[in-house]
Design brief:
The protein has seven helices and ten strands. By secondary structure, it is an alpha/beta fold. The longest helix has 18 residues. The protein starts with 9 loop residues before the first strand and ends in a 6-residue tail after the last helix. The chain binds adenosine-5'-diphosphate and magnesium ion. The site of magnesium ion has 3 residues, from helix 1.
């Protein structure tokens, strides 16, 4: 199954990606034959039940894990290891507690000239809405603000692909909503290619241009669903309801209680 990209040039291409882990001597097939083409500048959500291999797929695309079969290429080049142009944003706070917001964000660009560093860091801190908090330490920040620091740090390196692995999973639902809309604003402004892993149907609906739905382990693509709705999306519209039902159906769960 070859999936055409939606718009723009192919950026991240998965071809027949399979992954088998060794679990205490037993083979554990986690991913099976994943074919997917993500276009340059596209926002794609990978949606699937816990344990279906979403993080593994992201790690393979990021070069932290090798596929057992198949390949991932970015801009036509096979991924064989990590690359500073591709950054991860995780759910766990990866920011350093002993460093200020500014110092945390500057880490990724410390090899740049002093002038560049200042320009870039000030710019991304403003972009994520943390202006005025440059000197604050993580312990003085809310969970949502810490996650903004993570996003700022990722953006500082002008990544061409951003991998987000359930980045807002640990936040309360209101903060999550705010950060989703902020992420969309940033995506519109900078247009990086985003691969965003989630197990939350609403989150995928609110963010993605396309939602890649995975079956339970071994993770296979069950279907790819387009969410062809402008932002901000009207969650009360019939179209929203239709797509949402389709996603639940693919996940094999009934959501009406
Ligand atoms: N390094 C590893 N060695 C062995 N098993 C692993 C390893 N990494 C992940 N797994 C297993 O692979 C499966 C998929 O994990 P993961 O990709 O984290 O799923 P998801 O992110 O969809 O929840 C899980 O059963 C997990 O225990
Ligand atoms: Mg995961």
């Amino acid at each position: 199954m070859s999936v055409p990209s939606r718009s723009g040039d192919p950026k991240v291409v998965f071809e027949g990606v399979s992954k088998v882990f060794d679990k205490k001597g037993e083979p554990l097939q986690v991913l099976q034959d994943v074919d997917l083409t993500v276009a340059e500048g596209e926002f794609v959500c990978l949606l699937g039940p816990s344990g279906c291999g979403k993080s593994t797929l992201l790690n393979i695309a990021g070069g932290f894990e090798r596929p057992t079969d198949g390949r991932v290429s970015i801009d036509g080049e096979e991924v064989t290891g990590p690359n500073p142009k591709r950054v991860f944003v995780f759910q766990e706070y990866g920011i350093f507690p002993w460093a200020s917001v500014w110092d945390n964000v500057v880490l990724g660009v410390r090899d740049r000239s002093k002038e560049d560093r200042h320009r870039i860091v000030d710019e991304v801190i403003e972009l994520v809405g943390l202006k005025g908090f440059e000197r604050a330490y993580p312990m003085e920040l809310s969970g949502g603000m810490k996650q903004r620091v993570e996003v700022a740090r990722a953006l500082a390196v002008s990544p061409d692909v951003i991998y987000m692995d359930e980045p807002f999973g640990a936040l309360d639902s209101l903060t999550r909503l705010t950060l989703r809309s902020e992420l969309l604003r940033i995506w519109n402004e900078r247009n990086p290619t985003i691969l965003f892993v989630t197990h939350d149907v609403d989150e995928a609906m609110q963010l993605a241009e396309r939602v890649v739905v995975f079956s339970a382990r071994p993770g296979r693509i069950a279907d790819i669903v387009e969410v062809d709705m402008p932002h901000p999306r009207d969650i009360g519209s019939p179209e929203y309801g239709r797509v949402k039902n389709r996603l639940y159906e693919l996940l094999g769960v009934t959501h009406m209680i």
